[in-house]
User: Fold this.
Amino acid sequence: MNIRVLIADDHAIVREGFRALIDQQADMQVVGEAENGRKAVLLAKRLLPDVIIMDVSMPDLNGIDATHQIRSEVPKTKIIALSMHSDKRFVSGMLKAGVSGFLLKECAFRELTTAIHAAVAGGHYLSPKIAATVVQDYVRQTDALPASSSQPLTLREREVLQMLAEGGNTRDIAAALHISVKTVEARRRSIMEKLRITTLADLIKYALREGLTSL
Assistant:
């Protein structure tokens, strides 16, 4: 039986490369591609893949929040995080979201196939360059900034914050999330109150620090 794989990465050349390599494997098959986290969530629910290769930094909805949603709505699907950087915040965020593996994009393809097989078998795989002691330390810690620690943002607020930071206007955000303009405005106010932030510039800085967007 083939392992059904979904590739989520905002770079077409990366998706095409992975598809070509994965489809060469006797026991694997690429069933879909997503260029952002929001499409990854939609395809995960529709295609029910065995494994998703999830880029951490993507526009519209980042890999961390997309993973949270998929693990909640399609719990049987395994997710392997992929990133160019071993940033501790990204590693911690993805592990807390429930990924079965974390690889750096510099890894050899055989490392990815090893991670896929490990995930399908119910195990985990971490790139050797990500030190186990660092990972364990950051998984145990609360990684939020002091200003938001008492009132953490909800997943929906994080979605709105990322889209605001990436230049989305209120009407576009409302259309993308299928909510009213008033709801978007209410969430924006809630975000700014929780974070004690008063300007869009500071919202963007916060989103960058938290790894919600790489811009």
